[in-house]
Each structure stands twice: as C-alpha cells, then as structure tokens.
Batch of 3 targets.
Target 1
Amino acid sequence: MEKRYFPSIGKEISLLGFGLMRLPTVNNVPKDIDYPTAELMVDKALAGGINYFDTAYVYHDGQSEIFAGKALSRHPRDSYNLATKMPTWSLSDLDQAKGIFDKQLANLKTDHIDFYLVHNLNSDNLTILEKIGLYEFLRAKKDEGAIRRLGFSMHDGPEHLGNLLDRYAWDFTQIQLNYIDWQALKSGELYGRLVDKNIPVVIMEPVRGGALANLPAAAVKVLKDHDPVASQASWALRYAASNPGVMTVLSGMSLPQQMDENLSTFNAFKPLNPEEVEVLKKAAESFRLANPIPCTGCGYCMDCPSGVNIPVNLAIYNQFATMNLENPQFAPFVFINNYRALSEGEKAVNCVSCEECTHHCPQNIPIPEELKKINDLVASASS
C-alpha cells in the first residue's frame, strides 16, 4: 500500500482510507449494517495496508461508529488510525458536545481519537463553534491526549477556508476533491491554499458518491479509448491521489469487490501523467452535460419536513438528463415511470420550499429550484 508521511503528522498514513459512510446494509436500511460483510471488508483493508478509517457520529443513523469500534477493536490498536467528527450543527451548548465526545470514545472502544474533525465547518457551524467554545474544548482534549490531531471537514469556498485557517490552528483538513469539482466547486483552489499552509489534506468524495464510477456512455468511451482495462473508479481515485499534498483519499466502499479493486489501484499506485489528465478533462465535460444536478447522494438533506425523498428525485432527474443525450425519444417515458414508482409522499410535488434542505446540502444545491424543475418535467412528460 502506498503511504505518505508528513512531518506535522509524524507517522505514515495509507494513501487509501476506508470511509465508513456507505457500508453494506441489510435491505438498504442505513442503520442495519451487514456486520459479516462489513467486518470482512475491514479485515481486507487492514491486510491490504489501509491504516486510516473514517467515520462520524451521524453516519448510518448513528451506527457507523459502533460498527467501527466492534470491527476494529478485534485488531491491535496501533495497526489503525481512527477518524471521527463532531456534529456541530446539532449542538446547543458545550455540555452536549462533551457528552457526544465521551460517547464517541465508548462507541469506538478507545481512549483516543487519532484524527478528530469538526464536521462540515461552514459559516453557520462556525458560529456555533465560537458561541459554545467548542474549539477550546477540543484543543484541551488534544492536550490531554484524547485527541491526537485536530482538523475539520468543509464544503465551502476558498474565502471561508481562508477565514478558518487564519482564526485557528489545525493539523489537517478534509475537503471534497475530484476531477469534476476541481473547478466546479473550486476544490483546486482549496487544495492550493492548504498546501501553501503546509496542512495535510484528506480527500472525501473522490468518486463523487459513486457517480464517477457510473459515468454516462460518452464519458466512458473517452476513458476506454485511452485505457480499455482501467476501471472508472480507478481513474477518479488516481486523480485525487496524484496531488502530493494529499495525505489520504477516502473511499466509501459498500462491497468487498470494491475493496479489492481499490486496493489493487493503490498497491501499484501510479500518479496520472499529463496525457491522462487531459483525458479526464474530456470525460468531465461529458459528465457535466449528462448530470446537471451535482448531487452525491450523501443524504444530508434528509429527512425532509414534507416527506420528499430528495436524493432519489434528483437521481431520477440526472438519469433522465443522461438518457436524454443518448435516447431522447425514450428518456421521458423512463423518467415518468421512475417518478411514478415513488410513493405519493416522496414525490417532488410535495416540496413547499421551506429551504431546510439547502442549509444542510454540502454541494450548495438550490434544492427547491431543482425540485420545481422536476415538477415541470413531470407535467410535460405526462401530457
């Protein structure tokens, strides 16, 4: 396994990290993790050289940390690094944060967190952090040894990142970076600012919630014409990992086969060459045409107060956009059938534009506007 060493971190970290956000489940119920399969994947990861495991208090409806504690505690503590996060948006006072932190240590069956993050430190969450003194509490935990390295994750722009770096001292930062968002979400500028500050970078969403492993046909052709063998996911992972300021690239794997494939990519890791970078630029253009809504399916927008299944509605629309490029006569028929398969309460028509979802969307998608587009498309496809 390719590993990276940063003096400020003081240890070698596997270039591939296991993100425990999309673990295999029973009957697609997020809280019902398929323990035998997921534990097999953890064991494969460790055997393959992965030593960075990323979870969060809210993943899998609160069950991811519990799984991580049970699965990883079967192995020597010094064989893996744990990363988890404080859900700042849910905090009303510091006592609540203290209770969550203690519960996280219990969930993870450990006396310390190797990499601790303030989760999604946007401007709203920064206000909460400062109001309750969360940063000072976490720094104290670091001084005690309960936290070894302190960082944050974020989905905001370069200006907000600069503000966070100026205000506080951080050991590492986690950002979304892939070959679509390098420009679309200014991930390249975020990465550059962190490198300038000598802050190691953890990458999330390198495959954009799986979307870059299931590309539209035109983008697939671009990649296959250059390399008929390489998988779509391997292209995306190599793009993220080819940046030297990256400490680890998180992959939220759901199947043992995905683990095997990703281990193969990183056990014989080759940075992208200039020609391959140009290939990905062409694939990115095809992707953008076919996926007008930049949803990764993370589910942070849920639960909708009106009952709308937001990620599924957006996925149905993106599927229509892809099909409309390749088979415009058939696309409306497939779209309307997929939409009608939703329960009445889940449909976009129930959106009341309360904007609750937009406050939680890491991609800053104007969700009510997109749901209105879906309603308009339903009306036209049904006529």
Target 2
Amino acid sequence: MTPRFIRHPGPVSADRVAAATCRARRVELTLLPERSVNEAVADAFASLGAKSGYIRLRGAKVSPMRYVIPAATPDETHAAWYSETFAPDGVTVIEDAGLIVGSRDGEPFLHCHGLWRTPDGALRMGHLLPLDSEFAEPVEAEAWALDGALFEVRDDAETNFRLFRAVEGGMRPSDGGRKTVACTVKPNQDIGHAIEGVCRAHGIESADIHGIGSLVEADFEDGSRLASYATEVLVKSGRYEAGGASLDIALVGLDGSIAEGRLTRGVNPVCVTFELLIVADE
C-alpha cells in the first residue's frame, strides 16, 4: 500500500510536531444556552481558571446549528478548503463531537469536529462553526483542562491556514491530574507513527488519545477505505500501549460521505493538521 501525499502551497517546515508537556485534570462542565458555543465553552473554562483543553460532547442539542465539510480549493492558495455553510432548520443533536479549546488573537476560540443528527433525522458530520452556533439547552459535558500548555492559533506558512499550535504556557503544571502531552501534527505524516514518536520522546508507556484533525483519505483495518483527499476527523477512541498507537475514528469526505473504523497503521497521513491530547496512564 503506497503512502499518500498532499502538496501545500508553502515551504515545508522542519518542525513536524509541536509538543508541550503539561498536566490534564478531568472535569465536568455545564455549557449554557443563549450564547454562541464559543462563548459558552469559554465561560465554562474560565470558571475553572483554565484556558485550554479538550471537551467531548454527546447528546447536545444545538439551534441554530452551522457547520461546514471539506471542499476542493477554489484557487492555488490552499490545498483544500471548506464547503458552503450548512444551516439545518430546527434543533440538531450532536451525537459525538470533540472540541479543542484554546485562543485566537488573545481571545478564547475552539475547533470542533463531530457527528450530528439533523432535524430531518439524517446523520451528518463536519466542522462546527462555534461563533454561529448555540446550545438549545444546558449541556453537561466531560472535559480535560490543561495546566502548563495551551493551544494557540498561529499563522502556518506551509498550509497557508491559521491553525492551532500546542505551546507551553498558561497555568504552571500542578501536582494534580495526569501527565499529558498536548501536540499538533503537520501534514503528510502517518498519524499513528506521529503519536508513537511523541510517546517515545516523552517517556510515555501507555496513554489515552483524544483529538480531532484531518487525513488524506483513510484506510481501515477491516479493508474499507474513504477515498477523499481532504477529510474532517474525530478520534472516537484512541490508545497507545506496547509501543503502538490504535485509533478508532469517524471522518467525513468531500461529498459528505461518513466512514468509521480503526485506522490501518502506517498508511494514513495528515492532510492539514491534527490536534491531540496524549493523556498518560498514571
């Protein structure tokens, strides 16, 4: 099986993974309605004294709901782009979604990929627009709050996007929580190999993997494949142990097709970026 490759418009950076060691505290949040999803998440994290982390949403009702899926680029300034905005009429129920919480231009910002059931009963997937969507009622959610690392949006010359980058900062690492590495992965690296390299470099023997990102197509262990050069990915379940990473994911392609399963190791390169928490077993 030949590894795939996507060419981005800018110079290939030498730094292929940004990693920041920190501690992660498992917390429960109440996300309030009648404000944007971005503001609701920012308020909940601020109440903890935290600026960055990861949230998992299940069963959250959203209205209005605004989202996009991957699309072909309209010009040569990017390797891929976004579709028109989808705006379901009524209440959409998020079945499973992951949210990276960080900052952009000094203000709270988040990045969300997930699966949702639109009011017509259809299962859809995509990239939620956090400034244009609202929770329809209070949502109880599980999250990891980071001490000692942040996800910050920065200009990325290689892809010509503004992307989250994992950096050290925020609260000083505490004695509580679990040893964690926040990391962001550059294009054209197998995502499993990248995770394994981070774990080896930081002395992690076993860990849970949380996050979202994008892949150039996807090959699964059961032999199935999603043939879309740009995708949006949610890590549904991820583990690192015995020197290897395993990722069960859901992803959506350019035509809106959804696929789920365990990724084949060594043949699934990142498309634009991957944003991860590697939370060690302690």
Target 3
Amino acid sequence: MNFPKGGSSQFQPTRFEERGTAVSFTTPALCQARVRLDSREQLELTVSAFSGVKGNYVIRWKDVPEIFSLTMHDRALHEEIFKANSCLPPHVRHATLLAAKSGLAGPEAQKAAETALAEDENEVLLTRFFLFKGALEKMSGGKMNLSVSDFVSDKGRDRVKYAMGDVAQRLHASTNLLYDRLEAWGNLIAPLGVTGMSKDCRLRRLVNAIAELEDNMGKWAADDKSEAAELARPIGRISGFTADYAKDLVTSAMRPADHPERVLMNWDKVSTAIEKDIERLWWTIDGWEFVILLWADAQERDRDSQRAAITEIYRILPIIPEKEAANRPNAQAMQESTKLMVRAFEGWNTGALDMEMLRRVESTKRRQV
C-alpha cells in the first residue's frame, strides 16, 4: 500500500488512465474507489485516505480482499474485474453487471443488471439497423427496404447482403467485406447510437444528464443560503465543462457517418479514430452516473438531505484530468474548483458521520448500471 507524496493536498491525476475507473463496491470504505493499471500493467485500486485527509492510498488489486472486509457481492465484483484484467470503463461496467446479475447485491440490483444487459443488446441491434440503412441509402441514393428483424437471423443477413450488391460492385468490394465493416462500425458506436433512433443510447443519455446537472446546481445554489451552496456552484461549473468536452467527442465520433463510403474504404484508419473518441468518451463520463442518481434521489428529499448529497457529490466529483483538457478554456479553473476539504459521509453542518447519507449512497449503488 502506497500513499502519494504530498498527501496533504488533493490528488489530481493528469490522465484518464491515471485516474482509473470508478468501481461500484458496496463496502462503504471503497465508495467510488477506482481501478487502474500500474507501470507493470497490473491492476491496482486507488482509495481516498481513510483518515479523512486529502490523498489516495494505492493498493494492489489482488490484495484488496485481504485489506478490506468485502461483502460477497464485492468479492464477486473483484473477481470479475480481475478475470477481465482491464480498467477500461465499459469493461468494468460489464463486470459490474455480471456481479449484480448474480443476485449477491440483492434483488433490486439483480433486476437492474438484467434490464441493463438486455438494453445493451437492444441498442446494438438498433444501432446496426439504423447505421446500415442510413449508410446504404447515402451510398445508393435510394431507399433501402430493411427491417430490424433482418439482423437477427442468417436468412435476414443474407437479404441485407443482397441489397448491398450494387453498392459493393461500385466500390469494387465484396458484400461480405462491406457487411462485416458496417457491423463492426455499428458495434463500435452502439453506446452512442445514430441519427433516427427513437431513444438515445447510454452514453448520449449520460452526456445529456451531465449537462442538465449544471443547470440544476445553479438553480439550487441560488436558492440556498448555507455553506453547501459554495459546493454546488463548482459542481455546476464542472458539470458544464464535462458536458461540453463530452459533446465534442460525440460530434467527432459521429462525423464519419456523413461519409460512409469514405469510412468503408479506409476502415482501418477511420475505425481507429472512432474507437479513440468512444474510449475517451467512456473515460469522460465515468463516475457521473453515480453522481446523477445520488442527486436525483436527493431532489425528492428535504433541504438538509440535499445539502448532505451536495457535500458527498463534491467529494467524489470526477473532474477531467489536467492534461486531457489542457487546451480547453477554463481548464485550470476546473482543477481549482475541487480544492475545498470534504470528508466522506460527513454531515454538512455537524462534521459527524451522516448515517442517513451513507444509507442513501448504498441504495444508489444498487441502482447504478
């Protein structure tokens, strides 16, 4: 276990990879702890200092069950992440869903995980359909008579390939090659979806929710006279900064859809760029779902409960690392916005352990998918 030098000051990672991915452990001491890779490409966990001072402990992943008294769910989650040996946000999320699906975190978490996994599959299917249809219509100049059911059976896929015949001939490529590339493209952008879908996919929903949080924090702070308002304002500013950053990545990842022929003919190069944008988008929004759910729960409660939630949100706020946002306006101001001292689960007005806040955090974890 290592403690970063300068432990009296806030630990500020410079890259997404250094920050790591938030893990939905149910053990209170590990609330929003983050997994990342060390210099030897081995998993490790960063945890806020237990004594309440600013800083992070760094613990080898394999040692976590020996140091903490983990719940059965957390042991299962630890093992799933260990098996995947990845700290990328979508991989950690998938491990989280598999652990929750086991029922070890309770029936509510199990149901949420099952729903999320089914929704993920549905978003992949719908993204493929709308991508194929839109891309082929752009390249052929006419309407394509395709249906979603064409993408769930061999007979349907053969029908789609037949419909691609004229486009493949003009591009001097096989229909199998074009189909495979369009399918891979659809899988890549499924967390975002494409134009024409009736429902936003996961990443787009989260980006929109982060943007809404900026407005919510501003209105709440303007109507509150407590010290918590001084925390709500920077939360709002960081929410807006993060949403703008994420929206730029969304635009970049979706721009190739305007030129499908160029994408398919330069697939290796273009797909690498799209994959990079999607990966950075995952990193950007990581940790924000928990913040959004925690605030949604607080909005249904009294003002003191909202102040407690504001305090906890400020403590765990996932600010974009310094070097990732170095060239953006107000980047330095965002880094400075998290300098205030806030301890875990501390009552906003008493300094004592807030057991009700702790209970609500645990409830929120069970709903995070």
